[in-house]
Amino acid sequence: MPTLARFINAAIAGLLCLTAACEPRAHLPISAGIGSYPTIPDPPGKSLIPSVQVAEARGWSGNQTPIAAPGLKVTAFARGLDHPRWITVLPNGDVLVAETNAPPKPDDSKGIKGWFFKQFQKKAGAGVPSANRITLLRDTNGDGVADVREVFLSGLNSPFGMALVGHTLYVANSDAVMRFPYTDGATHITDAGTRVVDLPAGTINHHWTKNLIPSADGTKLYVTVGSNSNAAENGIDKETGRAAIWEVDVATGQHRIFASGLRNPVGLAWEPTRGALWVAVNERDELGGDLVPDYMTSVRDGGFYGWPYCYYGRHIDERVKPQRLDLVASAITPDYALGPHTASLGLSWSHATMLPPQFQDGMFVGQHGSWNRKPPSGYKVIFVPFANGKPNGNPLDVLTGFVTSDGLARGRPVGVAVDGHGALLVADDVGNVIWRVTGTGTGVATPEVN
Fold first, then answer.
1. N or C: which end of the chain has fewer CB within 10 A?
2. At a CB cut-off of 8 Å and minimum separation 6, what does 137 contact?
3. Closest of 426, 402, 413, 372 to residue 58, by C-alpha
4. Quick one: pLDDT band at residue 257, thresholds 50, 70, 90?
């Protein structure tokens, strides 16, 4: 190992030892932070550096795959991509993949603590430059493997969310929503695009991933904008328009805050029974391994969900000064907890899926995995069953096996989507693969990490 790398690892280990007395491990099983009524313990004491257990990015060897749950089969739809993060499926079955990573953020994660955070991110596979493109994948013979791969859009700015409305493709760059003309069956777009609305960005841009989903009539876009910090430590003035879902009028670009207090909202999906918008949200860090559960929730127009002043209902975050007890009093408790530090990003309703009956009515969730929980959490794709438009019961594993027994990350799931044949697609940004899950074959499920 190079000398510098040895020094860095030794320094990290030393700092972690110094902070080991301050909540080094989770005390509760991950299951305690999952479901409609999660356990919310008291927060631990403060530490200089948060607990860290990074699954070092290793990638997949040869024809290795994740482990599919019994009754499911997983194959590679496309390998050799460049940090694929998000997926959308076009009406003709073409699959668009955002190959992307963070833009330059010179004022984010500054100081010694920030420096170590950047090293952790690199170790986890998040330090690669952004390809800044959207790639089109097409399966022309229906064998479940993409045999056409084309650069669909290039020269973007850390693109993430995508949506096709009629013959207009909307793309959420890190700093703006763009629109592009689309022709049925096209394999690339050369148009420079038109800016619909600017999005909060800048030199901090702490949560850079911006996602979007159209309304049923296509006249509105709902756009996620994450916070500019963990818990407002950069000042509340840096959070204008952030930690929110915007409603954007596509004709005029005018927007309003549809819901707020959502630390890092990412995945979006419509639930068809009640017609509600659902979002997957990553909650705050540095409150120990048991806090705070990430969650998914239906979104109320005008609703406030707590960040930064409180979490999971009205549990006050004492680190945030000054407090806003008026906002705390209005905070909405999320519908369903997805476990602390699971980094639940991907969200997709199970419409028209070809998977077995237990996966027919509910939400698929891509859990990117923890970097600061001992033992780790997430690193899997799960399914949350619904009944009458609400979560109903414990989650089911769909894909596991992304982390080896010795703690190396072969992959990290992010975006999820159902393809034109009813299979589930999963973007894996460490493995650089799009996985395809079908309802045939068998697999061996792994036990839940506790």
1. N
2. 77, 78, 94, 95, 96, 97, 146, 148, 149, 434
3. 402
4. very high
What distance in Å separates the CA atoms of residue 175 and residue 211, rounded to the nearest whole number?
11
Task: Please tell me the predicted confidence (pLDDT) of residue 25.
Answer: 84
What is the spatial distance between Cα 151 and Cα 353, in angstroms, rounded to a whole number?
28
Examine residue 97 and state whether it is found in any structural domain, yes or no. Answer: yes
Kindly state the average pLDDT of the residues 399-415: 96
Region 221-247 average pLDDT: 98
The answer to whether position 221 is within a domain reads yes
Q: Is the pLDDT of residue 20 over 60?
A: no
* pLDDT at 443 (0 to 100): 38
- CATH, residue 244: 2.120.10.30
Query: How many CA atoms does the CB half-sphere of 182 hold within 13 Å?
Result: 24
Which amino acid belongs to residue 238?
A: K
CA separation for the pair 406, 418 (Å, rounded): 32
Q: Tell me the torsion sign for CA atoms 227, 175, 186, 145.
A: negative
Pairing of strands 56-57, 408-409: parallel
pTM: 0.92
Closest by CA position to 211, among listed 200, 194, 201, 224: 224
In this prediction, residue 117 has a pLDDT band, given cuts at 50, 70 and 90, of low
Cβ atoms of 244 and 225 closer than 8 Å: yes
CA 164 to chain CA mean position, Å? 20
Residue 159 inside a domain? The answer is: yes
Q: What is the CA radius of gyration of the chain?
A: 21
CB contact at 8 A, 284 and 294? no
| CA proximity to 39, closest of 389, 383, 291 | 291
Answer yes or no: is 444 within a domain: no
pLDDT, mean over the chain = 91
Which residue is listed with tokens 């702490």? 206
Q: How many CB atoms lie within 10 A of CB 80?
A: 8
- The arithmetic mean of pLDDT across residues 63-85, rounded, is 97
- Give the C-alpha separation, 296 to 278, whole Å: 7
Domain count, the chain: 1
Query: What's the CA gap between 342 and 234, in Å, rounded?
Result: 24
Paired residues of 316 in beta bridges: 310
Which range marks the domain in which residue 78 is found?
Answer: 3-438
State which H helix or E strand residue 4 sits in: helix 3-18
Per-residue model confidence (pLDDT) at position 151: 98
The confidence score (pLDDT) of residue 108 equals: 86
